[in-house]
Each structure stands twice: as structure tokens, then as C-alpha cells.
From TrEMBL:
GO terms for molecular function: transmembrane transporter activity. The chain crosses the membrane at residues 29-48, 68-88, 100-118, 124-143, 164-185, 191-211, 239-264, 276-294, 306-325, 331-351, 363-386, 392-411. InterPro entries: MFS, MFS_dom, MFS_trans_sf. This is Fosmidomycin resistance protein. The keyword Transmembrane helix applies. GO terms for cellular component: plasma membrane. Residues 38-417 form the Major facilitator superfamily (MFS) profile domain. Keywords: Membrane, Transmembrane, Transmembrane helix. It comes from the Bacteria.
Length: 419
């Protein structure tokens, strides 16, 4: 009979099942240190993936003018993209907890490839929605298993690895407006097809990463599982997970309000050009990327709970000031907002993973999925609100979202090894 295995963050490094060999694999990985080549590859793939995703929001002004769409219809495009990503990510994570799929990342990127090609030739609103949903489907397959690979390659530095992984995605998100301004605006909707070459490059890289990942998979018979005595009890774990979801809600909904409608806000309030507005959006998204990178190591060093406190609540003074600022002051404020509010991402995700290390893929999928789902639903609701009340009112309302950071007081104190 197999011995019970105490589940800690170390045993969570095993990619498939908890087995007698899992602690040994994790210990060897920690001694060997981070696999930097793999981390760089998965982060770069995240960069390529999220560059293609952010392209959708960046071409909204083109689609709005070409097909006479209102803000609610723009929000529905975001919802179509993020609904597939949100709905399927926990399912993918739960499935890969039981049976890892090392080459699923490359296959999932194929959906993104075809989604971009379809978007470049779509001339009907339903086809645009289908194309956006295909790109979202690629994202649903990509995130849970790639987050697992990043942790497996971390060498025990989980916050650092998650930040490197998040940096790729955040920087990719920031590149969408720049590429749209330089390529899609001058050359039109058909030029979106050129970005399918990025998807093809990602497929090649992810196939190679899958070849590295496959030998790491343990297939031994699952052992009995018991909780580590230092972890919170199941009731406190449920409360903590609910708090983390609420904090992610406040963060992601505010970020969604900027990424989806900030271009329109600048055009309407300050009469800037579409290209100039996209570059202002790039400033916010680039600061988002920088904040995501520094948040993980800070969580490793000082504790994730403190980073979460600072990240969500610390952005509140800047979000409250934004609706009253001029053009250049708005640019400065969004840089501070991006740096502060995005530093919570890695800490929230790793905190949740440490609460339930034996359900690593499912938890990763839920939290990545919640992030996408909140963004999609929020974009649709905020778009409808903007149609009825004006885009400026949306930013007055969203300014109070970081106040939900006060909920971090209900997060439990984690064992020292979890930091």
C-alpha cells in the first residue's frame, strides 16, 4: 500500500498526480535551480499569445467605424473572446491535473492561428464574434498547463517563476496597441492575417517545450493525500479563495475598463487621434507588465499577503484622481496605476495555488479563467453603461473598485515555507 503524502507547495511541482516519487522530483528541481531556458521559452510564448489577444481590443476603433458598432456590441466582442477562455480554463486545468498533455499548448495555439485568419476576413458581426471566441479558446488551453510548466521549471522560486511567466503575458498585452497603430490602422483589417505568423512561431516553441515537459511527467499510482498541518483548515481555505476571487475581481474589472475603453475615453475627452490614443494605452499596459514582473519576487521576499494589500488598495488614490486629470496627467496616473495594481497578479495566483497545491491545474485554471471572465462580463456591462451614461461616468464609477482591497484582511497567515 502506498504511504500517505503530505501535500505542500513542494509536492505541487509534480505535473500530473501526487505519487511517492513526487517529493523527490520536486526536491531535485529545487536543488538544480530554475530551468531558465524553459522559463524564458514559456514566458516568450505567453508574450506571443497575449500579443495576439490584445490585438482584438486594439482594433476596436477600426471595427466600430467599419461596421457602425455601438459600445455594447464592442463589449460583446470582448465577452465572446473571454467567455470561451473563462469557461474552459478550469475544465482544462482539472483534466490536466489527472492526465498531463505536454503537446496541448501547441495544439491550442492552433485555435488562435485560425481565429486571427478568420478575423482578418470577417465582414459580418457574427463572424467577428466567432473569430474572437476561437482566439479565446486558444487562451483557455494555453494558460493552465503553461502555468504548471513555469512552476515546474522554477527551482522552488515560485513567485519569481510566476512573475517571469506573467511578464511575458503583460508585455504582450501592451504590444497590441502599438502593433495596431503601426500596422492595422494604416493597412486595415486584412493586415490582421499577418499576425498569424506569430501564432505559428508560438506553435513551434510550445512543441519544443512540450518535448522537455513530457519526461517530467510522473505516471506512478496516486498515493493517499493528507493536508500539511501548517496549512489553514478547509473552512478558512474556502474563505481565502473567495477573498482572492473578490480581489481579482476589483483588479481585473478596473484593468478591463482601461484596456477596452481608454482609447475611446481619450478620443472623446481630449480629441486625440486613434493612433495617439493607442500609444497612451501602451503606456498603461507596459507599466502593467513591469508591475507584474516585480510583484512575484516581492511576494517571495516579504510575503504575498502584504504585496496583495499594497497592490490593490495602493492604487486607490490614483484611480480616484484619474477622472479629473488632464491628458498628460492622465498618462502619468495610468503608469502608477498599472505598476501598482498589476503587482498583485502573481501573488494572488501563487497564494491560491499554495492554499490547494493538490489541485494546482484546476486552481490555476479557475483564477486565470476568472480573470478572463470578469474582464469579458465587465467589458460588456461597462459598454452598455457607457452607451447610456457616457464613457466619463464609467471611469468615475470604476475609480472606487480598488477599495475592495480592504478584504485582504481576511486572508490567513501562511506557513513560512509558502513565502
Amino acid at each position: 500500500m502506498n504511504k500517505p503524502v503530505i501535500v505542500t507547495e513542494e509536492t505541487a511541482t509534480a505535473p500530473v498526480v501526487v505519487s511517492d516519487a513526487a517529493p523527490v522530483l520536486a526536491a531535485k528541481a529545487a536543488v538544480a535551480g530554475p530551468a531558465y531556458v524553459v522559463l524564458a521559452g514559456i514566458s516568450f510564448s505567453h508574450f506571443l499569445n497575449d500579443t495576439m489577444q490584445s490585438l482584438i481590443a486594439s482594433v476596436y476603433p477600426i471595427l466600430k467605424d467599419a461596421y457602425a458598432l455601438d459600445y455594447a456590441q464592442i463589449g460583446m466582442i470582448t465577452l465572446a473572446f473571454q467567455f470561451t477562455a473563462s469557461l474552459l480554463q478550469p475544465v482544462v486545468g482539472h483534466f490536466t491535473d489527472k492526465k498531463a498533455q505536454p503537446f496541448s499548448l501547441a495544439i491550442g495555439m492552433g485555435f488562435t492561428f485560425f481565429g486571427l485568419l478568420l478575423l482578418s476576413v470577417a465582414h459580418l458581426y457574427p463572424i467577428i464574434l466567432i473569430a474572437a471566441a476561437l482566439v479565446g479558446l486558444g487562451s483557455a488551453v494555453f494558460h493552465p498547463e503553461s502555468a504548471r510548466i513555469a512552476r515546474l521549471a522554477s527551482g522552488g522560486r515560485y513567485g519569481m517563476a510566476q512573475s517571469v511567466f506573467q511578464l511575458g503575458g503583460s508585455f504582450g498585452t501592451s504590444m497590441g496597441p502599438v502593433l495596431a497603430a503601426l500596422i492595422v490602422v494604416p493597412f486595415g483589417q486584412p493586415s490582421i492575417a499577418w499576425f498569424s505568423s506569430i501564432a505559428f512561431l508560438a506553435i513551434v516553441i510550445l512543441w519544443r517545450i512540450g518535448a522537455w515537459y513530457k519526461p517530467q511527467i510522473t505516471t506512478k499510482k496516486s498515493a493517499a493525500v493528507e493536508r500539511h498541518p501548517d496549512l489553514p483548515d478547509s473552512r478558512r481555505v474556502k474563505i481565502a479563495l473567495a477573498v482572492l476571487v473578490a480581489l481579482l475581481f476589483s483588479k481585473q474589472l478596473y484593468v478591463s475598463s482601461l484596456s477596452s475603453y481608454y482609447i475611446f475615453y481619450l478620443i472623446e475627452k481630449f480629441q486625440v487621434s486613434t493612433q495617439a490614443a493607442q500609444l497612451y494605452l501602451f503606456l498603461f499596459l507596459a507599466s502593467n507588465a513591469a508591475g507584474a514582473f516585480f510583484g512575484g519576487p516581492l511576494g517571495d521576499r516579504f510575503g504575498r499577503k502584504y504585496v496583495i494589500w499594497f497592490s490593490i488598495l495602493g492604487a486607490l488614490p490614483f484611480t480616484l484622481a484619474l477622472p479629473y486629470a488632464g491628458l498628460y496627467a492622465s498618462a502619468v496616473l495610468t503608469v502608477f496605476i498599472g505598476l501598482i495594481i498589476s503587482s498583485a497578479t502573481s501573488s494572488i495566483i501563487v497564494f491560491a495555488q499554495e492554499l490547494m497545491p493538490h489541485r494546482f491545474g484546476m486552481i490555476s485554471g479557475v483564477f486565470f479563467g476568472v480573470a478572463f471572465g470578469i474582464g469579458g462580463l465587465g467589458a460588456a456591462v461597462l459598454g452598455k453603461l457607457a452607451d447610456n451614461t457616457g464613457i466619463a461616468f464609467v471611469y468615475h464609477l470604476c475609480a472606487f473598485l480598488p477599495a475592495l482591497g480592504l478584504l485582504a484582511v481576511f486572508l490567513p497567515k501562511m506557513p513560512k515555507h509558502a513565502h
